[in-house]
Amino acid sequence: MASAPSNDLWIAALTLLVVFLTILWYKLNQEESRLPPGPRGLPIVGFLPFLRANLHHQLTELSQQYGPIYKFWIGGKLCVVLNSPSLAKEVVRDQDSVFANRDPPIAGLVATYGGLDIGFSPYGSYWREMRKLFVREMLSNRNLEACYSLRRHEVRKTIRNVHTKIGSLTDIGELAFVTEMNVIMSMIFGSNFVEEMEKHKKDGTEFRELVIKYLQIMGKPNISDFFPMLARFDLQGIQKDAEALLKSVESILDPAINKHLKMLSDRREGEIQGNEKKNFIQILLQLMEQKDIGISLDLVKIKAILVDIVIGGTDSTITTVEWEGIQKEMEALLKLFDSILDPAISECMKMLSDRREGEIQRNEKKHLIQILLELMEQKDIGISLDLVKIKAILVDIVIGGTDTTITMVEWVMSELLNNPEIMSKVQQELKHVVGMNNIVEESHLPNLHYLDAVLKETLRLHPALPLLLPKRPSQSAIVGGYTIPEGTKVFLNVYAIHRDPQVWKVH
Ligand code: HEM
Fold it and tell me: Separation of 190 CA from ligand 1 center, angstroms?
């Protein structure tokens, strides 16, 4: 009889537990029911075993079955795929700040020093400053114009090369890669870098292998990404491969960076010596041009100081002397001083302006690495740059700028070869705008309208990154009426969007 109350307690506790679990199950189920629909996978591994190469083709096929927004699980990671222009707008325009972050794989983080590059660093002041720097110093019209001769030189070299191979098989991809890599490397390190490489019989093919390997490693599904508990075992050795790859990339970048660091320190030493040799007039004239020194110097004041010094005046200058009687003599004396000082001042002013012009010319020819290394030494630019961050930007530019461009060139050439009538129209336009005996220049491009349309159509049909860089929402969000929880991997399927039959005619 004594055990009756404790039985009641047990029953009450059990009832509470059942009610609690029912509510939890209901809530979780409700949460799940607000997720988009999608294919079922296997227990634990989810959809992982069903993923195929050319993921964008498979994800486009799945959209025909599950609609413009669907989900699948890979291990513990929820993935959502968006396949329509209106859903893309919701993510990149209406909720841009929530979806601004990318979802880097472990291999991507390793190869960018923990995501210090532009592609993978999270949205915030660091990313903004790095991106601003990249756009200003690499992509601005001013920089592109300053680098025009580098591109022209490399393209002409390639054309000469193709000309020597008429009648034999040519690997367009390899040719485009070497050209693009040379252009990018000379924009970063100067044309000497490419000449040096060529002297050592290295023509960019070594780098091509690295880029191909890099993209293979980035694209390989990594168990560590989907089962974080297993990440430390690096079961497929992908993290180790990415580390080795970064070392290989560094073995090319480091010597070039070190050379520029040395040049910078030599130049600074030269400048210090140069400054020591500055005469007093030069210093005064330079001060006159600075607006933030507290006093406004002008030529009259400079001369007054000089007169003071020359005749040994102390705390008042001759120009302020107004004593009766001697004012006339003083004015005559001043004229005399002027006739001695003016030529010396003019000469110094000319030297200063020549030097400034020289500096402007030197600045225009600065390579990206020089600009970045100089910025690294400035403390007031908004971000603190260091060598690792500089290398992270360079990895982005070298990897992000080459394979994309080469993929485009290969697709354009393939489409033209498969569509002889379009090829013929492009040739007609080139004949008309450029002429048979001329070489295409960048200045011809605004008049090559048909070629421009061919490039844009190829970008539409064969986007170089068909799923972009997958995004990761920083908080739970509603897209297309469904919940996308924080941390989901969101694929924007531009391959499917670019071929949306509601917008584009299907051939
Ligand atoms: C035809 C040539 C190119 C194509 C098709 C292309 C395509 C792309 C795409 C699709 C993205 C990702 C956008 C996203 O997920 O939101 C991207 C990002 C990026 N690309 Fe390119 N790209 C090309 C050329 C270049 C070049 C020449 C450079 C360097 C000089 C470059 C540097 C970058 C960088 C740094 C990012 C990251 C930008 C960011 O996170 O804001 N790309 N590119």
Answer: 22
